[in-house]
Amino acid sequence: MQLNLVIKNGTIVTAENVYQADIGIRGEKIVAIADNLSGEREIDATGKLVTPGAIDVHVHHQMPLPSGVISADDFFTGTRAAAYGGTTTIIDFVAAEPEESLLDALAARQAEAKDRVVIDYGLHMTITPTDIAKLDQLPAVVEAGCPTFKLYMAYGFRLKDGELLQALDAVKQVNGLPIVHAENWDVICLMIAQNLAVGRTEPRWHPRSRPAVMEGEAVGRVIDMAALVGTPVYIFHVSCDDAVERIAAARRQGLRVFGETCPQYLLLTDAAYEEPGLAGTLPVCAPPLRSLTDQARLWTALGRNELQVVSTDHCPFSSADKALGLDDFSRIPGGVPSIESRFALMYTYGVLANCFSLKRWVRMCCTAPARLFGLTHKGVIAIGYDADLVVFDPNKQTILSTDLLHENVDWTPYTGFEVTGWPAVTISRGEVIVEDGTFYGTAGRGKFVERQLSM
Ligand code: DUC
Ligand code: ZN
């Protein structure tokens, strides 16, 4: 069989197995897994791990906030950084204007991404309060390849409980997956106002205005509503023990409840908000960073499969934008970067720290996101799947810094973090797009993936 590309002598890591074999690629697909393959081009992966391309189901590129500030990575810079870090598919978001149809909004967002994306991408459809009148459009959105629906319980465009129930029911009717930002917005608003009223304006009041117990309450509330309606539900950016406990309890009852956490909650704590001046504003995100105890619980939850996915919620804002909230923590644009470092951070601080196995690393960063989010040809190393692969050098030592990373932002919360293991080669649909630190991809080569759920 004529092979265009062969990855030779590597250790293949999948969610189920770790084994030695060569991988043969023809065109965009994996067509052979065997010993002693040869092809037009061969990459020697001796001493390296070969994994599926990582999948990041939670990213915000060029996302405008109501304040007018826009997240700093666009679809080119963000997906190029993702490729450097071994991520070959992302799922971003689309939100319709009040007068806009959901399909028009989808087309507009695809137009923003089209000429810029370096890797394949999908989009989650957001359901805001003004979209409750458009729920009859959901079948068309699913038909267009977007079967996952973002529901906010926080921010100005949150859904109130009645709207949330309506949205969950509508998503269930189309066999979609609701994905939820779960926090208690009324409590947060009150606590922010109370703190600001007495001059508590510094970033340290950000986590104190968004208590973990109320994240747990919101997670429990939406799980109960999803159970009432009979739909599965996926909880975004779980940050604390209270939220994990609700998810774990629901799963023990046999409910189809899933959750993710992100590197910031696994590796940073709320002590970061105690830093004076600008430094304390930078890691502001929502939910906020939590305590060391919460952090430890998240690692345990990943090891026990109480949480299934590690995504990033990559949403960088420049330090100049963060400084807009220097005198008022509630004005700090929320979000942190990690689209490039997630896969390696999870290897170093997860696998090498014995929190979970190699197989589970691949499961939570590649295979589970593909399965849960309907990326039917991705996240797995098997014949017929897309040749999205990473040749991962498990010995490469790196100290993270903004100079090393390619995210379009002038800071990273991971400055000084020591990482062992980094992608040496990233392959997207059979094309080498990063090799030994050089980028070979092109803007616009990524394709929109029409996703189909199989839950
Ligand atoms: N939280 C953040 O911190 N940023 C982006 C959106 C979100 O929910
Ligand atoms: Zn987000």
Describe the structure.
This protein has helices spanning 75-84, 102-114, 138-143, 161-173, 185-197, 205-208, 212-229, 241-252, 263-267, 278-281, 292-303, 319-322, 342-351, 358-372, and strands at 5-8, 11-13, 18-20, 22-26, 29-34, 41-44, 49-52, 54-56, 87-94, 120-126, 148-152, 177-181, 233-235, 257-261, 309-310, 389-399, 418-428, 431-435, 438-439. The chain is α/β, with parallel strands linked by helices and 455 residues long. The chain has 2 domains: 5-51 and 379-439, Urease, subunit C, domain 1 (Roll), CATH 2.30.40; 54-372, Metal-dependent hydrolases (TIM Barrel). The strands form 3 sheets. It has an 8-stranded parallel sheet with strand order 8-9-10-11-12-13-14-15. A 7-stranded mixed sheet has the order 3-2-7-16-17-18-19. Strands 5-4-1-6 form a 4-stranded mixed sheet, with no helix packed on it. A hairpin with a 2-residue loop joins strand 4 (22-26) and strand 5 (29-34). Helix 4 crosses helix 7 (212-229) and helix 7 (212-229) runs parallel beside helix 8 (241-252). It is globular and about 70 Å long. 55% of the residues are buried. The mean pLDDT is 98. Bound molecules: dihydropyrimidine-2,4(1H,3H)-dione and zinc ion. Residues 58, 60, 313, 315 line the site of zinc ion.
How would you sum up this structure in a few lines?
With 455 residues, the chain is of the alpha/beta class. It folds into two domains: 5-51 and 379-439, Roll (Urease, subunit C, domain 1), CATH 2.30.40.10; 54-372, TIM Barrel (Alpha-Beta Barrel), CATH 3.20.20.
Keyword list:
455 residues; alpha/beta; Urease, subunit C, domain 1; TIM Barrel; eight-stranded parallel β-sheet; seven-stranded mixed β-sheet; 14 helices; globular; binds dihydropyrimidine-2,4(1H,3H)-dione; binds zinc ion
